[in-house]
Amino acid sequence: MSRMPSVLMLIIPGLLAAFAGSAISAPDKYTLQVPGGLAFAEFKGYEDWQTVSVSLSEEAFALILANPIMIEAYRAGAPGNGKPFPDGSKMAKIHWKPETSAEAPAPTKVAGALHDVDFMVRDSKRFADSGNWGYAQFNFDDATDTFTPLGEGAACGFACHTIVAGKDYVFTAYPKR
User: In the 8-state DSSP scheme, what is residue 84?
Assistant: First the structure.
C-alpha cells in the first residue's frame, strides 16, 4: 500500500504535463482573425446554424449556413423584397474537396477533406466601405489540423460580391423547401 502513493506521485504529474502540453499546443480556431477585421470568434456556433443552400463546383462542395437573424430576413423575402439584410446577419460557407462516395450504389459526389471556411457579417458601421458587409476566409491545413486567415482584411471578399450588389452582395438564394 505504501508503494501506491509513491507510484501515483510519479505518474500523475507526468500525465498532467502530457495533457497540459497537448492542451497548450492544440490550435484554437477561435483565436484567429483576418487582418484589420473579422475574427473566427465572431462566428462561434456557426456549425449549428440553419442551412441556406449547398453548392458544388469542380473544386469544392459547399454548405452555406446562416444565423437566425439572416434566416428570418430570408424568410421575409430579403433581398428580393427590396430590403437589405439587417445588421447582425451572418453567413458561413464551409468548403470541402469533393470526392466520390465509396458506399453509394451509384457514383455520388460527397464532401471530402475540409478546404476552408468563409464568413460574412452585415455591419453598416464597421463595413460601410464594403457594401456594409465584412468578409473572412480561413483555409484549413489537414496536415496540421489548423486554420489560417487568408486575405488582406475584412473587405477582401467585396470585389467578388459587387456583381450581386442588387442582391445586397449575397450570392446565395434561399431555395424553396
Answer: P
Give the pLDDT of the chain (177 residues) as one tens digit per residue: 555 455 444 455 554 444 444 444 445 899 999 987 799 999 999 999 999 999 999 899 999 999 999 999 999 999 989 899 999 999 999 999 999 999 988 989 999 999 999 999 999 999 999 999 999 999 999 999 999 998 777 667 888 898 999 999 999 999 999
Q: Which CATH number fits domain 28-167: 3.50.70.20, 3.30.565.10, 3.90.650.10, 3.40.50.2300?
A: 3.50.70.20
Instruction: Give dist(CA 65, CA 84) in Å, integer.
Output: 18
Asked if 54 and 84 count as a contact pair (C-beta separation under 8 A), the reply is no
